[in-house]
Automatic annotation (TrEMBL):
UniProt pathway annotation: Lipid metabolism
Protein name from the UniProt record: 1-acyl-sn-glycerol-3-phosphate acyltransferases
Keywords, alphabetical: Acyltransferase, Membrane, Transferase, Transmembrane, Transmembrane helix
GO biological process: phosphatidic acid biosynthetic process
Pfam assignment, any one: Acyltransferase
Source organism phylogeny: Bacteria, Pseudomonadati, Pseudomonadota, Gammaproteobacteria, Pseudomonadales
Species the sequence originates in: Pseudomonas kuykendallii
Amino acid sequence: MDLATQSVKAHGSAPYAWRLIATGLSFVLFGVGGLCLRLLIFPLLSLLPGDAARRRQRARATVSRLFWLFVQFMYRSGVLTYEIEGVQRLGQPGQLIIANHPSLIDVVVLIACIRDANCVVKQSLWNNPFTRGPVRAAGYISNSGSMDMLDEAAGALRSGQTLIVFPEGTRTTPGRAPEFHRGAAAIALRGARIVTPVVISVTPTTLTKAEPWYSIPSRRFHFRLQVGADIDPQRFAEQDSAPIASRKLNDHLHHYFMKELAEDEPTGN
């Protein structure tokens, strides 16, 4: 997949007015695409032969491909540039991918890079008319915060799926350090073969929790995704009880992201 290997940087920027229009078109395209998936594409895919696992795999591959096309639309229309490093190490069986969450499109780019990935998503997306079709057909996991969610996520990992989790639970508030909840660490200790951190930065910041979609930066933003070294969660589980191991793994991940984000901040783009 081109997105997995490409590093595309801008030499200049499209005019502000055009980027505002292109950003609005991106949101419209995303919403219309979600409805088309729910009402047309997934019903047609369900007619193809195969069991539930095969149908889920087809749905995830379809979402991944369409997300890749969506990112390409944002790039070619002048909204963003992107840089992705080490993505060939994503998509391993039993791999828990832990990522920070600075912008609205983080999950879009990650899923675009992985053909068959599961993901823990916000509960609200299950009821949103534009997103519930893809979310349900792909078998993503609702972030209800319950023990059932933890068990379902750990079970997906034990069955050999790749799982994406954002430990913050929501997008990072601009100007604040990310705060990791312990649920991701608990999932890792229950079922992950490996844990892979993915550091995401967006420069200038945009599409954050505090900004409406039309509050675009003065130039096209640069999206950078960097895959870190794999972590064996069992080295935490073997040393302590489950609650202590979960806390230590969560602290380890949080310190890793804080360090990587601090190193990335001065260079910018």
